[in-house]
Amino acid sequence: MADASMTPRFPRVALFDLDGTLLDSAPDMVATSNRMLAARGRAPITLAVLRQHVSKGARAMVAATFPELDEAARDALVPEFLQVYREELGRHSVLFDGIAAMLQALEDDGARWGIITNKAEYLARDVVAGLQWQSRCAVLVGGDTYPQKKPHPLPLLEAAKQLGVDPRDCVYVGDDERDVIAAREAGMPSIAVTWGYRLEGEDPATWRADATLHQPVELLEPTAWPSTVR
Known about the structure:
- With 230 residues, this protein is of the alpha/beta class.
- It has 2 domains: 10-24 and 93-224, HAD superfamily/HAD-like (Rossmann fold, 3-Layer(aba) Sandwich), CATH 3.40.50; 26-88.
- 37% of the residues lie in helices and 12% in strands.
- The chain contains 8 helices and 8 strands; from the N terminus they run ββααααβαβαβαβαββ.
- The model has no long low-confidence stretch (mean pLDDT 95).
């Protein structure tokens, strides 16, 4: 009989970035930008143009939508962007293929999972509610939950503290270099994923993550995850 202790297992705690990692939210962002452009009689922006800016946050997306404006004028549009985005949130976005199965596999293995995003916490909670993840997501940290956000390690450290685990016993998964930096500074193993949102020229191979994956389905294989202190 095979020794069950030798069966590969997922980490006891898996923590994820949200946009570009679990959720393909770019279509919601494009709808938001295009509502703002239409209100000003402007031509729409394409998904291909805006997509690469999504993980950089609202200011970056406003800058891509209104490149002719100076920084102060763009910053003045951020509250409008967030207001419109909240109305579009969840209307067009979808989970990346394989993510739902992966989260179920984690739970079936007895692992806990949570989300650490730079999105404002109230918006992240709206997303989680829309996906009916409230009872499944063990911890949720937004970009304004603590005084610092990624790439600072504080959100990751606080998430581990909330869960009562050592950061080294978690794995953080994200699609942006700041995710990897935050994990490294927190002493947490990391996975960089390449299916998310990156600016042209950004190379995840240079981020020094503990693993780099190219398809969400790879997360279904426990051996693809970096080892942790268990």
